[in-house]
Amino acid sequence: MTRANAALTGAEGVRVEGTVGRRRNGGCMKAKPVRIEKGLGYVQCAIEDATHVSLRLPGPTGLLTLPVIRSGTRDGTGCWTWNGSTEAPTLRPSVLTQYDGADRSWRCHSWINDGAAQFLSDCSHDMANTRVALLDVDEIEPSNAK
Fold first, then answer.
1. Alpha-carbon distance 47 to 89, whole Å?
2. Which of 65, 11, 19, 63 is nearest to 42 (CA)?
3. What is the rounded CA–CA span in Å between residue 24 and residue 82?
4. DSSP of 30-51, one letter per residue?
């Protein structure tokens, strides 16, 4: 199994701009394609122009922005492969996030398949060994709950 550490972004990190809201067919956007623009940070873009994708995982990780490629080899890039879907994203390799602060610590490890997080057994939270749908990436939620 491949494991990779993901950089956390969101409230404390680089801002993600653009509004998307609900999709025309009533579905939600579970993956937002973005690219970095100097002086602006991450800005929403077309799928084919994306250098990163933003996701909102249930649980302690919350909003996460990862570098992605859609084709070719990821060897030596530090990127995840992404299937290009905004409604049912699949990423490879697995996503591992960890936090170890004075107030609390947690570990969240998952596979992202078809718009859901398959939380692995090495997670420290109560969603370990479960499959949970990704949240709408533009949904506003409280910061990482204890």
1. 12
2. 65
3. 23
4. SEEEEEEETTTEEEE--GGG-S
Q: What is the pTM of this model?
A: 0.76
Q: Where are the beta strands (DSSP E) in 2-130?
A: 16-17, 31-37, 41-44, 52-57, 62-69, 80-82, 91-100, 105-113, 116-119
Rg of the chain on CA atoms, in Å: 15
User: Are the C-beta atoms of residues 111 and 94 closer than 8 Å to each other?
Assistant: yes
pLDDT by residue, tens only, the chain of 146 residues: 333 444 333 333 333 333 333 344 456 899 999 999 999 999 999 999 999 999 999 999 999 999 999 988 888 888 999 999 999 999 999 999 999 998 999 999 999 999 999 999 999 999 999 999 999 998 765 555 44
